[in-house]
Amino acid sequence: MATYEWESVTIGQNTEIQKIVSAAAKASELLNTNIGLAKSGLQLAQAFLLGVLNPKIVLLNKIADEIDNFVNDFKGTGFFLLEITPTGKEIIPKDADGNPIKLLLTAPAIAVSYTAAAALGQTAEFLLWTQDKLGIADYETEGAQNSSYAVVQGKTKSFNARTENANDNLVATKDPLFGMYKFTPSQVIAQTIAAMDDKNDEKRPQFSDSAEVGAIMLIVGYSDLSVNIKSLTNAITALVSFFGGEEEKDSKGNVTKAGGIFTKGFENIANILAAAVGQLEDPEKNKVDLIIDQVSGVRGNESEKHVTAREVVGLPYNYEDQFEVNDFVVGPPIGFNRRALGYVSEIKETSTPNTNVPYKTQELTVIGASEFDANGFREAKGREITQASYFKKTTSYVDFNSGKSVPGTPFNHYKFFEELTNDEAKEALTKVERKSTSDSPDPFLTPILGNSTEDVTENVNGIIMRKVVEGKVREPKKGEAPPPNFKAARLEDLIGGFGDFFASVEGLADTLRNIAGDSKTALDEFIKYLDLKIKELDEINENLQAVLKLFTTGFPDAGVYVLTIPPTVGGNNLIKSALQSATNRPPDTLDFSVGFMMMAGGPSMKVLNGLLNSE
After folding, report:
1. In a 3-state reduction of DSSP, which class is residue 215?
2. Is residue 595 assigned to a domain?
3. Of 353, 334, 304, 357, which Cα lies nearest the Cα of 468?
4. Could you say which of 454, 476, 498 is where a domain stops?
5. Distance CA 454, CA 451 (A)
6. Residue range(s) defining the domain that contains residue 47
7. How far apart are CA 314 and CA 301, in angstroms?
8. CA dist., res. 114 & res. 130, Å (int)
């Protein structure tokens, strides 16, 4: 059986594609020369000019022939395409018989994961994984007896470690910092295999075992979005550009440029990431104006409401107080184990509707810690917001699909005042701000130091009471088969710029021959012809330059992993087996990963392998 291995490489730079790059470059150079000659008026003797042009005539015809050959080989080649981008709707992957998808792990890879887990103090969690997923009673004493193990794929965390969606069959998790759904590389691969068996997807490939097939799969993956979100955004944007580009519209909403019709999922992810980066660079984008009623100070905590304050110390539960600028505030739940977080950036108005009670009404502006948080505040009508103590939290775990130790990434978090110990209350961070700039976007809130212990505690006759400002949001101030699914494509639809490029080069071949032919006639006619063709030649040249840039630059290798499955007899089962068993797959520490698979019959994949593979 053939062995397959993932590689981290740059695609789009190889000998095969350099043939057309070379031809197009020569054509572009000649077009520039001829355009320049035409624009200068060609005030040279006819005999001399024809003598200069004659060698180019032969070359122009050869370039036209080479371009024709390229177009005939590539245009119309068909593929099955699959995007794997998390939406939150994906379910635990299963094969056609309803059995869970499994990926192979070798014994050496398991040993490496064990060492990493021990170094991070996660030995107990790792041993639980080996029991549940590998069937090894005691890995520390037995080790891995088999050369490899087929590991069932599902959620990333063990049942006991889950804080959300513990009992359902959804697999994507939400990033705690930005609130977007995430996959690991193992989940991307498992979703791909399951999609090939999804009988509800009528467009899926259905090659028999006797068919020659091949595939290329790309995975773009990063860990710790708090520091890598810009790199991830750039990589996804490059992928969208490579495979078709974004759709463009005019001011009236009319489509002026068709985007890549097979990368809509990546385009959506790119837009979400761009929005996240944008709000980091400009926190004002997360601004929410709120009207807050029943604003007051509160003594005690939820379990002691109206008891500690009134019966123990004889003080009222509520007292007169109000929100201040930079107060760190917690809003309503916006998901399992998650609440909207932000801070008060402006107090626009404070009023006292009834002087007989301590309640106030405030019109204030809250800046969400992220766009996800800001949306939580926008939907907070009728819910309470309260002061809290800010801190950054990190949660590490052992990935339950691969046994990899995931150190976890920091995210904005909080403690309610009543949850603080006395020592914590002395250092409570109750006021924060955002200090992001375009040069150094920071996804975390910045604490403002120097608060007083009196901000959160009150000593009444030796009894320590917690104090907090709370209020209720009146209103924000008014102003199918489960994914993923396959798509069908031709190469001219697939690669960015190829639609315009093919139209251009087909016309270019004829134009070059016309130029060559006309240059043998009277010079005046040739000049007149070029004058008429200048605009057209400029447009063709622009398309050529775009494609030249595409293939001379290639697709970035940072965070990008490629698995090539050369055309081989075996049909769908060959591709699934290769995906399950390929070694050196991207590590599941890359907890934000997306995938893109291109699959076709043997002849078509030979074309695509030549186009995208590295040397």
Report:
1. strand
2. no
3. 304
4. 476
5. 8
6. 15-77+488-552
7. 15
8. 10
Of the candidates 571, 580, 606, which has an alpha carbon nearest to the alpha carbon of residue 191? 580
Tokens representing 429 are 């961070």
Residues 6+ apart with CB under 8 A from 580: 101, 102, 103, 104, 150, 189, 193
Q: Which amino acid is at 336?
A: F
Question: Cβ distance 322 to 361 under 8 Å?
Answer: no
For the chain, residues with pLDDT lower than 50 are: 1, 12-14, 16-17, 34-59, 70, 73-76, 301-310, 479, 496-498, 501, 505, 518-523, 530, 544, 547-548, 550-552, 554, 557, 614-615
- What DSSP assignment string belongs to 118-172? HHTT-HHHHHHHIIIII--S-HHHH---SSEEEEE---SS-GGG-SSS-SSSB--
Q: Are residues 446 and 513 in the same domain?
A: no
Within a domain: residue 531? yes
d(CA 263, CA 245): 8
> What letter represents residue 554's amino acid?
G
pLDDT, tens digit, 9 for 90 and up, residues 361-380: 999 999 998 888 888 898 88
Residues written for the chain:
615
Residue 393: inside a domain, yes or no?
Answer: yes
Q: How many CB atoms lie within 10 A of CB 137?
A: 10
- State how far the alpha carbon of 46 is from the alpha carbons of 34, 512, 515, 517, 520, in Å: 15, 20, 16, 16, 11
Same domain, 390 and 322: yes
Q: Which residues contact 89 (CB under 8 A, 6 or more apart)?
A: 170, 172, 482, 483
**pLDDT tens, 28-56?**
555 555 444 444 443 333 333 444 444 44
Contact in structure between 253 and 247 (CB atoms under 8 Å): no
Q: What is the number of structural domains in the chain?
A: 2
